[in-house]
Amino acid sequence: MTPAVDTNELGRLAMPSYGIRRILAAVVADPELAQAKLALVDYGRPDVEAYVDALTRFEPDLVGISIYVWSTPCMIEVARRIKRRRPQCAIVFGGPSARPAVFDLPPYAPAQAYLDAVVTTEGEAIFRDIARLPDLSRAALRTVSGLHLPASGVWLQTGHRAPTAELDAIASPFQLGLMAPGSVAYLETYRGCPLSCRFCEWGASETSKAVFSADYIVRELEAFARQGSPSVFLLDAGLNLNPRGFRNLLEAEARVGFLKSAQLWAEIYPTHIKEEHLEFLARVGTSYLGVGLQSLDPVVLKLHDRPFDRNRFESAMRKLTAVTTAELQIIFGLPGDTPEGFRRTLEYARSFPVTVRAYHCLVLPDALMSRGRPDWDMHYDHTNLAMISCLGWNQQDILSMREELARETVANGGRAGDYWWSFPRRS
């Protein structure tokens, strides 16, 4: 479920949920499952009744649900109702927010009442293996490695599942024609992240060291062209964080030339920028380049295992802004920071010729939820995961900063969503 974007930033651009379509592609592409009856249910809105009605009509034996922060409450309620109606139906959760720590939160426990298994790693091969099972009993699920199974207040792990060794073996929903024509395209050149910042989910899990080949990326770009995608969302942790992945992207684009006429949305790690990255960005139709600063305070960044070199950062920003349009991203409510420290970060970020987006800190699974330190004394909303208070920020500090940012964005002609505030480039 991909919700409507705050403030209608994307206009008429459609962004269908990608993760669940990756799973769909894995099943569609499997010859052993050629006779399986499949349905994709994705309404793009938190309508529990609509999902339950659609699934009830389909009468499934197996349901796979991909969840993110924004869809977790809705999808868990859907699972609860389906389990009551069809207790023999196996319900499997995956996606970035599908973690035992989330399902153990008070609004969602006990997980055993509504789900049978959780996939906490790459889901394509695992869900395919589940779909191949002759029966979907608890005993059968135990034979599939890479699962967490709920069991009376504890979680049973079914064994280690190594990351995908050959990423090209992953079926593409674009190449199989499973994505809606004219929608935003999604592209991967590698998986995971070499960094392990505590506030971010990217670098927490074991991921493949492999990359998608240039030939695979060529087929993706050709599929994007066939379906008339106006924009390409690069899902990599950073355009420049995997040299082999970037080289394959360069080669593929040289062979296809699609990105010259499409908008490219990507993240980039500023202190790793090289001339080849700048040349690439100057050639393609970049419309959004996110640059994560998060905090200016070196003590805060060190606390969160975030590398930072101010001189290299400023040099990189000068080079980037000469060839493309960028947005600096910062976070308020980080443990160890303070309101005063965040204001310094905001002022510093706004000194560059870029837009600046401030985010309310979220306590994400595989990030602060599991890697935060006890002395950070974090309290957060168990539904939306927004930080309520922590080391350096009391509850009133957080509320006051939200109000302050709301005033400042309006005063500066910016925009705001529920958990972000965007400042335009200073003239």
* Uncertain runs: none
| Count of distinct structural domains | 2
Using only C-alpha atoms, the radius of gyration works out to 22 Å
The average pLDDT value, as a whole number, equals 95
Helical segment count? 14
The coarse overall form would be globular
State the helical fraction: 25-40%
CATH topology category name of the largest domain: pyruvate-formate lyase- activating enzyme
Please report the first level of CATH classification, the CATH class of the largest domain.
Answer: Alpha Beta
Structural class of the helices, strands and pairings? Answer: alpha/beta
Q: What is the annotated CATH architecture of the largest domain?
A: Alpha-Beta Horseshoe
Strand order of the largest sheet: 6-7-8-9-10-11-15-14
Distance between the termini: 38 Å
Query: Which percent range describes the beta-strand content?
Result: 15-25%
CATH superfamily of the largest domain: tm_1862 like domain
Q: Could you give the count of β-strands? A: 15
The biggest sheet amounts to: 8 strands, mixed
Order of helices and strands: HHEHEHEHHEEEHEHEHEHHEHEHEEHEE
